[in-house]
Design a protein that fits this description.
The complex is a heterodimer of chains A (480) and B (133).
Chain A lengths: L7 E4 L2 E4 L11 E4 L2 H4 L7 H8 L9 E11 L1 E10 L4 E2 L11 E10 H4 L3 H11 L14 H10 L1 H6 L5 H5 L17 H7 L12 E10 L2 H7 L5 E8 L2 H18 L15 E2 L3 H36 L6 E7 L1 E10 L2 E10 L1 E3 L18 E4 L7 E6 L9 E3 L8 H7 L2 H10 L3 E3 L3 H6 L8 H10 L3 E14 L2
Parallel strand pairs in A: 3-4, 18-19
Antiparallel strand pairs in A: 1-2, 2-3, 4-5, 5-13, 6-10, 7-9, 7-11, 8-9, 8-19, 12-13, 14-17, 15-16, 16-19
Helix pairs in contact in A: 4-11, 5-11, 8-10, 10-11
Chain B lengths: L2 E4 L5 E7 L2 H15 L2 E15 L3 H19 L1 E11 L3 E14 L5 E2 L5 E4 L5 E8 L1
Antiparallel strand pairs in B: 1-2, 2-8, 3-5, 4-5, 6-8, 7-8
The chains are: A alpha+beta (480), B alpha+beta (133).
Chain lengths: 480, 133
């Protein structure tokens, strides 16, 4: 059993398991957390999973975990690993089944006071307008040719067709398109699953929230991001849906069969990986990029429906601008400094957010002087944060956490918190809840997660990103 | 008991029992859909399925991946398997089920994480499997 004594304290917010801990580790394993929260990680097997990542071929410096770490499959959720592009591997398990699950934030010009009387109607309208993709609501089936265009072109494909505007491309991570996407690497089954799901929310922890800016921590950066106190903003959290799940399923199988050929042996089959430069690695990366483009397009289309609802309820002149859109589950080729030299790395972020600093060329022009907006959703009914990337997070491949992090299983949460009671508690706090099943609500009960304020405090104090604004929910809309 | 839901922080983990491999596969199917609360309506459906894999654990995961694909694209839920052919590497069968009415939480994938499948001393079979949800 791993315990606190196995960790070396590097700073108040950074802890390390040395390479010597297990014979097969190639690098140490590090976790960003506070001393108090370190106890939480022993509740499940997430640290064992973090150690498993440290055994992957080509891993550089260390395997990393963010303070919202919890047990996943293969990689833990909140796990980060950078591999040398020359000799490293790429692992679908380091991205997850929900490729480019992520968050986008839309900002309005209205304050809470102005919007409050309309919120109930707005929440109803959004629920009607945005299909869950689970059998209810509007169903549009695109043909395979349209799916191919989305997989290749991402958000710009939809903008060309009249959905959304130019700023929606500029203010999206990677401009809403990974250029490596290649539709020939995506199976027909994946495409088929994607046909009816562009602009659908899904289930589980996916949601749309109407929020207000409760507190501003950094006036200067908030101004650049276009945020002000009491402002109404809308957050959208979902991913690549069935299409992404199928790509992951397909390639985990491919890699598991190919691993022997490359003499790769791993402690967990779900970590299946192949060299990034192998045919299998390349094909997965291109398919994953296509899946990522689909996810950005999915969130973009949902934003289109949300805007439609917003205008219908708040007035045709009222706008919702895209602040930013970030991926939480993705692998990217990036350049980073390692021992004084620039190296090309494949950075896996599974339940983690990229957070580039001021001046980085991949930060949209509008924000380049201050840094990339980092969007960290809390659990349902709790606060969310907008942060900004810093130079200090270089040590973490410019990465921060992606949320609060579960501490209680869905089953335990369902047993402990009856859905009706969770809804009542949220309503007592003045939060409007639109959800079709009580189970969906019970599983996502706020107490099933770590406290988001504590988690964000860790990354703020560790210097991985700086707090800009705290957002609190006014209305929650869930797919199921 | 056909199956049992185990504790897992974020996902759906089940332990499944069967007197033989065929019953084990059917009970995994039932446990997966019941565990995620896939509810069917009255209309009955049948769906042909054919899977080939390198070994028995792969066959189970590939079978479930195929079932999830069929369920999502046809909007159906299944509870019974009529086997036409079955060995450790191949499976040919008809799935019996219903049109889907609603889903509690959508299953993203059947994973290899901690996958266990074995025959016990009393000759019955047992499997543990984790689904990403």
């Amino acid at each position: 059993m791993i315990s606190k004594k196995d960790f070396k304290k590097i700073s108040d917010y950074l802890w390390e398991i040395p390479k010597s801990f297990r014979f097969d580790m190639r690098v140490p394993a590090r976790i960003y957390t506070s001393e108090r929260m370190l106890e939480d990680v022993f509740r499940d097997r997430s640290i064992g999973q973090l150690i498993n990542i440290a055994t992957l071929p080509g891993i550089v410096n260390y395997s990393l975990a963010m303070p919202d770490i919890h047990e996943g499959y293969g990689f833990p959720i909140g796990g980060v690993a950078a591999m040398d592009i020359k000799e490293g591997v790429i692992s679908p398990g380091g991205v997850g089944y929900d490729i480019n699950c992520g968050v986008r934030l839309l900002k309005s010009d209205l304050t809470q006071k102005e919007a409050q009387p309309h919120l109930e109607n707005l929440a109803d309208e959004i629920q009607k307008e945005v299909p869950s993709g689970l059998g209810r609501g509007r169903q549009i089936k695109l043909d395979i040719a349209s799916i191919n265009k989305i997989l290749e072109g991402g958000v710009s494909t939809l903008v060309k067709r009249g959905y959304g505007e130019k700023e929606d491309i500029e203010n999206c991570e990677a401009s809403g398109r990974m250029e490596q996407a290649d539709t020939s690497t995506v199976s027909d089954r994946a495409k088929n699953r994607g046909r009816g799901q562009v602009g659908t929310l899904g289930s589980g922890n996916h949601f749309i929230e109407v929020q207000k800016v409760e507190e501003i921590f950094d006036e200067k950066v908030a101004k650049v991001f276009g945020l002000f106190k009491d402002q109404i903003v809308i957050m959208i959290h979902t991913g690549s849906r069935g299409l992404g799940h199928q790509i992951a399923t397909d390639y985990i199988k491919v890699m598991m069969q190919a691993m022997a050929k490359y003499d790769i042996r791993l402690p967990d089959r779900e970590l299946a990986a192949c060299p990034i430069n192998s045919p299998e690695g390349q094909r997965y990366f291109k398919a994953m990029a296509a899946g990522a483009n689909y996810a950005w397009s999915n969130r973009h289309m949902i934003a289109h429906y949300v805007r439609k609802s917003w205008k219908r309820i708040l007035g045709e002149k009222e706008e919702l601008k895209l602040l930013y859109d970030v991926a939480h589950n993705i692998a990217k080729i990036e350049e980073h400094e390692v021992n004084g030299k620039i190296m090309k790395l494949v950075v896996h972020r599974k339940g983690a957010t990229r957070a580039f600093p001021a001046g980085h060329p991949e930060v949209p022009q509008e924000y380049r002087d201050v840094g990339q907006p980092v969007l960290i959703p809390g659990s349902m009914g709790t606060a969310s944060y907008v942060c900004v990337g810093t130079e200090k997070s270089k040590e973490a491949w410019y990465t921060v956490n992606h949320g609060a992090g579960r501490i209680m299983s869905r089953r335990a949460a369902t047993r402990k918190f009856p859905g009706a009671e969770v809804v009542r508690n949220l309503e007592q706090k003045g939060i409007i809840v639109k959800c079709r099943s009580f189970r969906g609500i019970a599983e996502e009960a706020p107490l099933a997660y770590k406290d988001i304020d504590n988690v964000v405090e860790v990354v703020h104090n560790a210097g991985l990103s700086k707090k800009v604004a705290r957002l609190i929910p006014l209305a929650v809309i869930k797919g199921e | 008991m056909k199956y049992q839901i185990l504790e897992h922080t974020a996902d759906l983990k089940i332990k499944v029992f069967g007197k033989d491999k065929k019953e084990l596969f059917e009970n995994v199917l039932i446990g997966m859909f019941e565990g995620a609360e896939y509810k069917g309506e009255d209309k009955k459906v049948k769906r042909k399925i054919k899977v080939s894999s390198s070994d028995l654990p792969s066959l189970l995961v590939d079978f479930l991946s195929e079932v999830l694909y069929l369920s999502e694209t046809n909007w159906e839920v299944y509870h019974k398997i009529q086997f036409a052919e079955f060995d450790d590497k191949n499976l040919k069968a008809t799935l019996i089920g219903k049109k889907l009415e609603r889903i509690g939480v959508q299953i993203k994938g059947a994973t290899w994480h901690g996958l266990d499948l074995h025959q016990k001393k009393d000759r019955t079979w047992e499997a543990t499997i984790l689904f990403d949800i």
